Amino acid sequence: MNLSEKLQERYGKSHLSYSSLKQALGDMAQFDRYMKGEVKYKSDALDFGTLYDMLLFEREQAFEKYIVMSDSQVLSRLSDKARNSKKPSMTSEYKAVVASMKTEALEEGKTIVSSDDWQMANDMIDRLATCGLLDTYLAGDYQVGFLEELNGVQVKGFLDCLGNGFISDSKSARSAEKFRYAVRDFSYDIQAYIYTKVFGIKDFYWVVQEKTYPYLPALVKCTDETLFTGEMKFNDAVNRIRQFLREDYDPVKDYLQYEV
User: Fold this and answer.
1) 145: number of Cβ within 10 Å
2) What pLDDT sits at residue 252?
3) Residues 6 or more apart in contact with residue 94 via CB below 8 angstroms
4) Host H or E run for residue 204
5) 129 confidence band (pLDDT: 50, 70, 90)
């Protein structure tokens, strides 16, 4: 069986993604858990990134998905005692009301978002418009999906923006200047390699924006060297997955080997 057939047999899907390939560069036992759907990542940063991207690329859907929760809405549901306390947001009643509102939203198929996060995401997008990046390097077709064969492997993913002769990916970050290190640490170079190869477009950019006021943006061009690094990581991950899918392979005995 080829790799796609082995993946299909074990996990019920024949493709790999950037996320699964990134997992394969580390602990293969963790890769196995990820492919089985046992690994769920959740954090405030990821939640905000999802909100930011949806307002940026799928704005109408954002208004359908999210319910903006203001402090005044929560306070209106509190008892007089809780509302008049020194710090209402620290009371158990306040937290219970927030939890109840989130449950109500989920029952409607929606997600609660704070008014502060909603406003910040919109302010960040306004800054992108003001500096010109929104109408240039974030102009094109949004959320373009693909399922293609690359180097004999089925890969699946979504582009943030397919522009005229370029591909761009939106990232929010603590520091626009230090994003260069995140490319390495989070293996964004694998993403860049996959996207440019699948679509036959060489020019790849990250549009990075800081999450603290005044929301400094940056246009980061992916170099040939970074694409080459992404290719090497892609091939290394695929080779590790091929080895892992052998019948006699024990992931618990796996360990990393590298030089620095």
Assistant:
1) 8
2) 74
3) 74, 78, 82, 88
4) strand 204-210
5) very high
Residue type, 35: M
Amino acid at 192: A
CA separation for the pair 22, 180 (Å, rounded): 17
Integer-rounded Cα radius of gyration of the chain: 22
Kindly list the structural domains of the chain, giving each domain's residue range(s) and its CATH number in brackets, ordered by start: 3-39+132-245 (3.90.320.10), 44-130 (no CATH)
SS3 percent helix, strand, coil of the chain, rounded to 5, is 50, 20, 30
| Residues 62-98 pLDDT 10s | 999 999 988 888 889 899 988 889 898 899 999 998 8
- What is the maximal distance between C-alpha atoms in the chain? 68
Tell me how far CA of residue 126 lies from CA of 37, 121, 211, in angstroms.
Answer: 36, 9, 13
Whole-number Cα distances in Å, 50 to 34, 71, 113, 204, 217: 20, 22, 11, 21, 18
DSSP string computed for 96-152: HHHHHHHHHHHHTT-EEEEHHHHHHHHHHHHHHHHHTSTTTTT-SEEEEEEEEEETT
Token pair for residue 236?
Answer: 């290394």
Contact predicate 150/194, CB 8 Å: yes
Q: What is the pTM of this model?
A: 0.86
Those residues with Cβ within 8 angstroms of residue 2's Cβ, 6 or more apart along the chain or in another chain: 152
d(C-alpha 257, C-alpha 247), whole Å = 22
Burial of 16 (0-12, 13-18, 19+ CB in 10 A): buried
pLDDT, average across residues 124-128: 97
Q: How confident is the model at residue 166 (pLDDT cuts 50, 70, 90)?
A: very high
Q: Beta-strand (E) ranges in the chain?
A: 66-69, 111-114, 141-150, 153-162, 167-173, 204-210, 217-221
